[in-house]
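P.,

For your records, the input lines for the assembly:
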Amino acid sequence: MDLSLNEHQRMLGQSVRSFMERRAPRSKIVALQRSELGYEPETWKTIAELGWLGLLIPERYGGGGASLTDAAVLYEEFGRGPLPGPFFSSGVLGALVLLEAGTDEQRHRFLPAIARGERVFSVAITEPARSWGPHGIAVTAERHGERYRLNGTKLFVSDAVAATHLIVAVRTGPALDAASLLVIDKQTRGVSARLLPGFIGWQAEVTFDNVEIPAEGLLGTRENEGWAALTRAMERAWPILCAYQVGSCQAIFEMSVEYSQTRVQFGVPIGRFQRVQDHIIRLVNHLDAARWTTWEAIWKLDNGRPAAASVHLAKAVTAEAHIEACNAAHEVHAGIGSSLEYGLVPHTQLSRTLFNYLGDPKWHKRQMAAALDW
Amino acid sequence: MDFEVTYTEEQQRFRAEVRAWFEANVPAGITREPASAGESHENYQMRRELGRKLGAKGWLFPTGPQQYGGGGLDVDDAIILEEEADRLDLSLPPFYDSGATMGAPTIAVWGTEEQKEAFLRPIYRGDVRVWQLLSEPSAGSDLAGVKMRAIREGDEYVLNGQKIFIGSANGTDWMWTLAVTAPDAERHQNLSWFMVDASLPGITVQPMELLGSGGGGEHGHKNTIFFEDVRVPALCLVGGENNGWKVASTHLELEHGGGGHIGRNRLWEGLLSHCRKNYRDGQPLTAHQDVRDLLADIYIRGEVGRLFGLRNFWLTYARQPKSYEGPQASLYYKYAGLWMTSAILEAVGPAALTTDPRWGSNEGFLEGQQRNGIVAVHPGGTADIQKVEMARRIGIGRTTRQAAGKIA
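Structure tokens returned:
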């Protein structure tokens, strides 16, 4: 038993942290909140050059061939920002879906370009008035000879505005799980992505208006195998998303402890008040619940153990923990916490945005129960 | 990173040896809940006898130093022993003995050579059962405010005072306690730590009627203990006169969850089995979505608690620096247990409240949780005290962080 990171992982974590301090300090994160894409092209390019964008992509497809544990170290540090931008959408979820669903030719075509940062992928699954799951896919792709024609709307699609390519889950048959995955160049006529306004981070409405693509846009060789591939990819992507949220919880924990030491009211640092202490204790308990459920799930995946129940558990715990941790941090900070300049709000908005993303906690808990065979 | 212990072939052989030994030496029915005081005493004797047999092999305190009769085994072997005991629903020691499990490490850290020789060997061999005596009627959360007096007279200390919420059923051989040896000194500098022979004249043990007691089990049964001019040899003062508060930091750290824990979640296993076998509206409870959702939340809290225990176990045995993790785990168990009382009541219905052999669950298994989930919020430091400890160690509102207690 050894719950520590190895030397290589500790060094990776340190390099990412010092990179973040230089290139994405709190002031930069705050400034990025108003940007349409969520990232700066130079930072994107550097992260690709450092090999971090393609960290999880196997070496034969131009990536780093790293373990999920390594990727989790990277994303936990990103989450401390929280660094916005389509890193997870393209470098983790997009890449893993291509790996699970694509033919060897398709992997060779897209994955090296993802690792180099030249193509940016976003995965479009959810739709208006639909729940999570294969039955929630209503956008149809009709086959006309050598082409597919798409019509419909995908909603709450992360990083769709920044993306150059979309992986779209479409309905290709009447069976409940008859879903297929299509790769669509966002330049294709009839595709449009519109950033959703409000207390939500970089999610978009994507519409397909008589969009025609060549049949080789289908990932894999057969229709209706999309949901199974998506599930395999997500089982590995969920805990990386969790690690990103753990990093966010860790940052607001540190922010809150520091504020409790420096903010003086009634002549003493506010952290001397037990009611303020209670908020931070609640915060750290949620942080650690998220941290250890996430790391155990990742350890199981990296070591070939049955991991489904642990992965669903980690996603449910982390989504709830992130919201609770942010709520506690706001109680500690009171007024200043809601200032858009201060740097707490990006975390809070993230916690809300990711709560339902790739399955909400209730759905994950039910999947966990099914995986445990109750 | 590795969440599991990897066993060598030698360790696998050790496991086989342990399992065979347990099969040959653990009496049938030892884990059956005793129904009366008589049965409880009989069961206790059976468990003490097993304890002595384990002690002779060095398996009662497997990591205790061999020179004082401990097993001298490494952590992996100790885990094997704990897991094999756990398989049979037993713990090590197989009876209520928190005074020894927390007292022995305290003596190992603070005792003189002579004291280690005198106290550790009988504990490690299973010859004595030990209780810890901390709370008093006017000193609960404010433990440093204890009033029990110990006055030096020649080669002895004379102890007077009262302790409450102590021990279990069936008595004890030894007890240790904190008493005031310098009434005029400052708080935290006025206490000393004593190991006391329970058979000394002047000690009276009076059982308390508490929500947690019930059945014939040892746990939950507590006592008030009166000390009237109890003469204790000076050798029994451990860790130096007026140094008792520092000595106590060792066992308080352990009591606050600092040692960590690995093992099965027996509550969960019992609950799931109840929900599979019992019906509502013609369907097993596990077929109802509302019950499944509650079970998921109950299971998750158990898993988070397990991971906190596992983390603390690893921090302890890998000798990693610790901060707030001990009281955090303790706080988590307390709140999770209390929350579970209402979650289980909602999932299972009123069957959770009765010990009735026909309508209750698993011989009152769930009924015990309904009571103990409430009671467990307070011993070993209330939930609020765990929060105070966490805040100090995290450094909330202060830049000097308090260190965790020294446990090895």
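Two observations worth noting. Strands of chain B lie at 130-133, 149-153, 156-166, 174-180, 191-197, 203-207, 223-233, 237-238, 279-280, 283-284. The two ends of chain B are 24 Å apart (CA to CA).

Regards
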